[in-house]
Design a protein that fits this description.
Length: 466
């Protein structure tokens, strides 16, 4: 039943499908007379599909029609949620104030405010009655169509989009490709045989075959070769099935040219009569050499034409993610969400003064290397080196005197000087060098004076000691 249902709506646009469904759901057999106001080709096509649907029993037909109507309504794209306010305002400028207010009141507040600002502060009208949901749905539908016509076409087709097509859309591609494949063979048939053959096709396939035969008349085959090509696809006994088989062969050849895995995925996606056709032609095309792109570009072109007619929906592609510019790596984030410049770990707080009587020694800076020789010299010097002068050495302990001022205790050889006996206490932990009493002569020999450090030695003219 699934394959048969898809046959009813193949090659129909969304408008034609909804017209067929609603006319049969509410008008039943009287709907055939209502198609008289349409164009000849469209009237013939809808009459043919309506007669086929009326052959289904009433209880099954009504449920089928309602199901298809719900599917079309739920799958209809909602374009007003992301429409540009300028484009929406351009469409609403041509409408009356009451209709504009009805549309703006039904939109989200942000979009309505932006559109109202683009309209130049149009006066806000107060509606006396609420609009019925059915009327509001029709207004929204027409507005979406108007916005869609003015919007630029985004998203071009790729050959891999065949995997996303519904079965009725893929059948429409098969019909168009089959008409192109059999164009020279149909043109090579005699006039009477060609007219008889075209009369067995449904209206949509007949229109495709006529146009393709007219385009391929200059390359027509001989009658013998034409019948051989048609018989290869079984198109002499069943023209409609043969035309679709020729199109399935072209699609199978392009799928094999893409990759064997892609062809297998196409077969697995359609487990029905169309899938069996694809499986047959994929098996035959695998052993043949691939010429050019295998016809993939031609199929993409047909997808574009079907999208222009409203039979196939264009693909929706998301923009690629924004990458940071080269040369500027993104700043690393810390567990708390702060950047390194805001981190308290990399920016230490200022030092605090001790509050007690005893001054707290300075702690060595994180990452500083200790120098044991410098620490030992600092301990020997005592007060000669201030606390913190040597990295990693906190300095001698401090105490406070009776006036409350900090007083540094002097150490010598690792012991406090005030604990040593008076005889062993030096007058000064560091002895200063004596100064020279005689100034250095401006000329003459420079080695005639005594050394202030070494007693009893004199430097000669060569700088050596005598």
């Amino acid at each position: 039943m699934g394959q048969r249902v898809e046959q009813f709506f193949t090659s129909l646009s969304k408008r034609q499908t909804m017209l067929l469904l609603t006319s049969l759901a509410f008008g039943s057999s009287e709907a055939l007379e209502a198609y008289g106001h349409l164009a000849i080709e469209e009237e013939e096509l809808l009459r043919h599909r309506a007669k086929a649907l009326l052959q289904i029993p009433r209880d099954k037909r009504v449920s089928l029609l309602v199901q298809e109507i719900k599917r079309l309504v739920t799958q209809r794209r909602r374009q007003l949620a992301s429409v540009d306010p300028k484009r929406l305002a351009t469409v609403l400028k041509k409408e009356r104030g009451a209709l504009t207010e009805v549309v703006l009141s039904a939109l989200p507040s942000d979009l309505a405010d932006a559109a109202r600002a683009e309209l130049g502060g149009k006066q806000h009208l107060k509606l006396k009655h609420e609009v019925k949901p059915d009327i509001l749905s029709i207004v929204r539908w027409k507005l979406e169509e108007a916005v869609k016509q003015g919007a630029p076409q985004v998203g071009t087709f790729r050959f891999t989009d065949l995997l996303t097509l519904q079965q009725r859309e893929l059948l429409a591609v098969c019909d168009r490709m089959g008409a192109r494949v059999l164009a020279t063979a149909v043109a090579g048939l005699p006039d009477e045989a060609r007219t008889e053959w075209l009369g067995k096709l449904p209206p949509d396939q007949r229109a495709l075959a006529v146009r393709a035969a007219e385009a391929g008349a200059s390359r027509r085959l001989t009658e013998k070769d034409a019948k051989l090509v048609l018989d290869m696809h079984g198109a002499i006994e069943n023209p409609s099935q043969g035309l679709r088989s020729a199109g399935a062969q072209r699609i199978a050849r392009a799928c094999v040219a893409q990759s064997p895995e892609f062809a297998q995925r196409m077969i697995e996606r359609h487990q029905n009569e169309l899938g069996r056709l694809l499986q047959r032609w994929v098996r035959e095309e695998r052993g043949k050499p691939i010429r050019g792109d295998g016809g993939r570009l031609d199929i993409v072109e047909q997808l574009e034409r079907l999208a222009q007619k409203g039979i196939v929906d264009r693909p929706v592609r998301l923009p690629p993610p924004i990458k940071p510019p080269p040369g500027k790596p993104a700043a690393p984030r810390l567990p708390g969400g702060a950047t390194p410049s805001q981190s308290k770990v990399l920016v230490p707080p200022p030092a605090r003064r001790p509050t007690g009587n005893v001054a707290a020694p300075r702690q060595p800076t994180a990452g500083a290397r200790r120098d044991p020789i410098a620490e030992r010299e600092a301990r020997k010097a005592g007060v000669g080196r201030s606390a913190g002068a040597v990295p990693g050495y906190p300095g001698p302990p401090r105490e406070t005197n009776s006036q409350g001022k900090a007083q540094q205790r002097i150490m010598r050889d690792g012991k406090l000087l005030d604990t040593l006996p008076p005889k062993r206490r030096p007058t000064s932990p560091v002895q200063a060098l004596p100064r020279r009493k005689e100034p250095a002569p401006s000329g003459g020999e420079t080695g005639s004076h005594r050394s202030p450090v070494v007693k009893g030695s004199r430097r000669g003219p060569g700088g050596g000691s005598e």
